Records
---
Amino acid sequence: MLVIGYGAKICWVTMRVKAENRMVTLLVEKCDLLKDAILKQNRNRSCIKRNIENIAEFKSYVDEILFRQEYDILLKDDSFFQFERNMRGDQIVYKYVFMQNPLIKISFDDYCKKYQIDLEYEDIDCIKDIYNEDESEEVCKMLNFPLYIRYDVDDRGYIPNLHSYSHLHIGVSEDIRIPVSKILSPPAFVNLVIKMVYPSNWKHIISASLNDSKIYDFKRLCEKLPDKFWNSCELRDVFLT
C-alpha cells in the first residue's frame, strides 16, 4: 500500500485547492453571480458561527465578514461562500459555508412605485442606472429567514447514524445535520447552493446553449469516505449522494 507522507499530502491538498478554486470561480461566473473572488489560503475570521439568535445578529455578522473581506466568493447580492481545509494530524478537516445576505434589493418596478417615477415621462435607461447603483437600505428589504448552509467533514465527534463524519447543516441549529456519503468538493457545494437558492441562474446555465458536461462532473469527482467513517448501518439510513 502506498503511504503518502505529511509534506506530500500538504502539497497535494494545495494543488487540489487551486484547481477547485478555478472551478468554483468559473461556475459562479457562468451563473452570472460573481461579484468578487478572493479565495484566501488563510483567514482571520471564520464563518463557522454558532448560536445566532435573531436576524439582527445574523445581519451584523454578515456585515462584519463583508467589511473584513473574509469571504472566498462574493455574489452580486452580497451573499458569500467561505471554504476552509485544514490538516489535523493525518486528517483533512473541511468546512464550507454559504451565508445569504438578508438585505435583498426591491425590484425595479417596486423601486419606481416607491419613488413615484412615471416611466412614460422619464429616461428609463437613466432610471435603471440610478436603481442599479442605489444600495441604500431604503431600497432593500430584510429577509426574515436568510439561509445559512454549512458543510463539515470532521472525525471529532463522529458517531454513526447520529453525528456523521461528512454532513450538511441547513440553518444555524447545530442539531440539523444531514449525512453525506462522499466528501463534497467546493464546486459540488457551490453547485448545490446555486441550484437551490438561485434557480433562475441555474436554469440559465443548464439551458441547451450553455450546457457543459463538466458541470455534471462535480459529483463524480467527490471523494469516497474512508470505510472507518461510513459503515453498513449508515448505508441503511437516509443520506445525500
---
Amino acid sequence: MFSDNVTNAWWFISLYLFLLIALTFVTFGKSNLMRFIAHHFNLEYSDRKLKMLDKKWRDIQLFKIINGINVSGIEDVRMIQQGLIDGKLKTSYFFLTRFWGDITKPPHIIKTIIVILASIIYILFACYIHNKQSAIVRDAIGIPYKNMMYYVYSDKVLLSFKNKTVKFNKTYSLADCKSLQKRIYKRHTS
C-alpha cells in the first residue's frame, strides 16, 4: 500500500515537472512564465512607467506564444499582426521561426555557418555509427568471440562470422546445443 502511494507520488511529481518544462519552453523561458503567472494573479508594478513597459513586454511575449513568431518590438508585432489580418501573411510562412531568433533582424552569418557545420558533422557521425554497428537481431543476445558472433535466442543459437564478406550463418536448435554440450563434456572427461 505504501509503495503504491510512493509510486503514484513520483508519477505526479514527474508529470508536474514535465508540464513545467513544457510550459517554460512554450513561454520562451522561466521569466516569461513567471510574468504570466504574476499577471494572472494581478501582481503588477506600482510604478506607472514600469507597468506600461511590462504590458508591452507581455504583449510581445503573448504574440510570440500565440503565433510562434519571434519578434522583439511592439511595432514589429503590430506590423505582422496587420499583415496576418489583411491576409498578406500566413502563420505557415513563419513555421519553425521561433528557433531562429528575431525575424526582423538579419541572421548572423557566423551562427548560421556553425549550425550548418554542426548539422553536417551530426549527419556524418550518425552515418558512421550506422555503418559500424553490427546487425541488430531481434530477441537475441549477441556474444562476440574471436571472429564469430553468437546470437543466443531462447530456443536456438545462431553462429555468424563478423566479417561481412563471408556469408556463413548456421543455426543450432536447443537439442543440437545440448548434444554438442554432451560431446564437449565427454571429450574433456576422457
